[in-house]
Amino acid sequence: MSIVRCSLGCAASGTNPTTQMLCGETEVFVNQELTFEFSSPIKFSSVNTNSFQLVEIPSGRTPPGAFSISPTNPNLLIYRPQLTFDSAGNASFGLTLGATYAFKIPGAGTNDLGPFIRNLNDQDNANRLACTLVASQGVRDAVLGSPSVTITLDTVKSRDPNGDPIDFNVNVPARGAIDVYRNSPVRMVFNDIMNPSSLANPVTRTSESIAFFVDPDGDLTDPGDQVVLAGTFTLEINQAQALTTVIFQPSGGLPSAGHQTPGRRILVTFAPGIVDLGDHALINPGVVSFTPEVIDFDPIILTEAFDNNLNEDAVHSGATWGPGVLTVGRGGGSGRLGELIVPPGQVVELDTDLEDFSSITSPLIFNPSNVIDRPDPFQVLGGVFEFSRLRVDAGGVLRLRGSNPARILVRGTSDISGLVDIAGGDGLLHNSLDFPGGEGGVPGPNGGKGGNGGDRPDGSAFVTVGGAPNPSAGPSNVLVASTYVNVNGKAGGGIAFPSTIAPSPTFVGGGGGGLSWPQPTASTPTLHMPADLNDTSGLQLDPFHECSIVPPGAPGAGGAYALSGRNGVVVADTFSAVPFNLPPNALGGNSALLAIDEFVRSLSPELGLLRGGSGGGGGGGHLQFTRSNATPLSPCFTPPVGSTLQVGRYVAHSGAGGGGSGGALQVVGGRAIILRGVIDASGGNGGSGTFPLTSGSATFDLAQAGGAGSGGAVMLQSQTITIQPIPGRINVSGGVGGEGTGRSEPVVPSQGGLGGPGMVRLEANTAPSITSEETKVEPREADLQAIYGSGVAIEDIISTATWTTITDPPAGYSGAQSCWIRPDGSFFQLQFADDAAVPGWDMRLRITGQAEPQSYRGENVVFPGNTLEQIFGSDLGSAPVVVRFQGARANSVLLDPCSVPEAGASSPLAANSLTDWVLHPAELNDFFGADQSRIPNIFRFTIIWDPSQVTFSQIEGVEDITITMLPD
Questions:
Q1: What Cα–Cα distance (Å) separates residue 561 from each residue in 161, 553, 796, 829, 851?
Q2: Contacts (Cβ under 8 Å, ≥6 apart) of 547
Q3: Domain endpoint, select from 66, 101, 134
Q4: ∠ CA 646-647-651 to the nearest 5 degrees?
Q5: Tens of pLDDT along 766-787?
Q6: Which of 247, 686, 786, 837 is most buried, with most CB under 10 Å away?
Q7: pTM for the model
Q8: Are 583 and 640 members of one domain?
Q9: Number of domains forming the structure of the chain
Q10: Which residue, 421, 452, 486, sits at the end of a domain?
Q11: Residue-wise pLDDT tens digits, 879-929
């Protein structure tokens, strides 16, 4: 047995022509098929990588490849380098482009070591073939020229008496085919080895270059109504026959052609980018169309009996689904606003006074089509937000502001992995030469604003005294006590007492504003702001003004809530030999004025006890470092006779503002609350001066500090509350007082008062353990005791209870939502039955005193001659139970009908095909008019309970709900 010829141009060696052969071609393609013909039939089992040696130099790696014997010539051995594809369909070849390979077929006649390729009589190959190959030629086109595609499918050949197909014509050309079988695959055979990445993704089984559409009216000249036909693509490559096959299987089958004329048609389109491995484009791209079979569908009556949870959309539901009945939940709201999702990197801010949702334009965040009974204008007043679901992703921020408490009522699940921000804003850094005092920090919802800092005292008479800068003279008159209100720091905003719903509440707990200085008090009645150049008496802190320094105004105090705010602490330079008076410290807000007990700690919104905290007070204006022209002597005494004592330097300062308080927030989860992120209800820090607090700092920028705002109130209510066991998941800490002017040597600033902590309330089916939950809340008990002493405990800020069923609206509403429903069948659209002989939809209610469930929209024994729907009504807010329906068009398979992205690239829904919620599913039939590209083929329903209605007591639950559909 010997080698006769090969595709590499094998030739006998001149030095040993009978036993040694060489390759006439040594430059090869990475996918080149190699053939070798022997003098007798080959024993295939003798062919392996030892008897056929191809080794990469210098790695010694044997490239992957496959051997075969020609089916038409038993003497012909074929070697094909392996062709593989990654998950995106990109080709990878057995030979590496540019690599060098040592190639050898050992020969027994040249004394090579075996094994050898043998014939069927076990005779060894006699002559050696050896050469060096270089994979330098790139990719070889398996079939020369441009490829073409042939499309085939199956049509119905005959039907049984019921009209169901029983025999088929197989592999019928697709172009113009009619009566195409509903479950027929569409086979696309390309006469070449194609580049798979230009056809379909073998992992996702999708294609970006081949598309299937339904033309609803069969008029291909108008593509505006064409709808994507969902399905999966599979890919097969036959290297031996140089064929590539793509098979499309429509999801749920091909839709019926319908009974209209012309019938619906299916279009197949091929993008120009389809190429073979040689990068040759498809020669016959374009459009192929065919007509599916006409299917006579029976009406579908879908019944949900609530006996399992397969159709329950749990994250949007709070009512009790099953077993065998739907009953009212504990609360959570109607969910009428739909879901709110805050993606990573996004900030969504809601105003508790008036929120216009039309300002949110991204359907990925909020989709107005999901609003039940959407009002016009679409506004929410009063801060009560009823969502079906809340999700704040990590990196997302939900911020709430306004004068009302924030009440987020969620029918299903509240899942917070990002930040919910109801924190108070800080008082800002403040330059004391600004005329107005610093602005107090803004509060969280329903919180107290930080008090503004005191304005600069009047300096109109001292513009050039001593060359000191004195721009923008302050209040025009600060010569009498009644006008010192202009330069005193303002108190922080307080907390409504006894409640937010009291007819005329008082506001208590705000941190006191710091007094300006100098000013007359009971102990220092002669002190005052100077009126003119010669008015120095008011600057005296004692008779020896030559040795005194005017002290600053007082810093603001902290706001109170669960515990009192702390006083502001004033610090000033002093001479030990000279006594002088400092302004009295501003007093922190007093929590005792809130009369806090277990009742108040309930934070009940219905009782007006869900309240934001109180703001910190602003720092007082002052004249620190204003001085007379007297020369300090030791011991101190009055100026020499004949001298004129005057104001020698005039410097006036405004004060910094206080911090705003944390706000008030209720989050209800009808199903669950999951907190992996942070709810920040902390108080804002008091404002500070902009001066550097270092020795030798400038004396003309000396703002006094503002006090801090208190923490706010956070209330969580749900069947289950899961808080990640990490400190600071809920933060109701008071803020830190600002730093103001003080003593220069050594440097000691005045300090605004600390804000008091707020309160946390947790209610679940089983009352949460304070011991377990306190580690997740700031401040910790040790922090409180470090400030207030051992007499305080964590129970002063955290309380828990069992979540009892709510009946008051809107928190008492509860509801359930189904997953998206798509009945089985090869239909194009769902037509919902209207009310004819029987209702197009109905549900049966369990009614107190009745042995059998009663029809809601049909005959019943409770109110003969009237339906329960007529008696109870169907309006949200006046009926004990309401039902709404919503439709959409799915263009691809719903991987999880209970979790369908409604917008974005991953959404399977046709653009803008989501309908509003309607009272009757028949309203969905013509919701989009003549636009057939959005006609629904899926739907869902929601049922909402209102236990506040008098008639609610008669209803025990929903036994089942039925919807009648006419598929087409």
A1: 81, 26, 10, 59, 54
A2: 575, 577, 578, 632, 634, 636
A3: 134
A4: 175
A5: 999 999 999 999 999 999 999 9
A6: 686
A7: 0.84
A8: yes
A9: 5
A10: 421
A11: 999 999 999 999 888 889 999 999 998 899 999 999 999 999 999 999 999
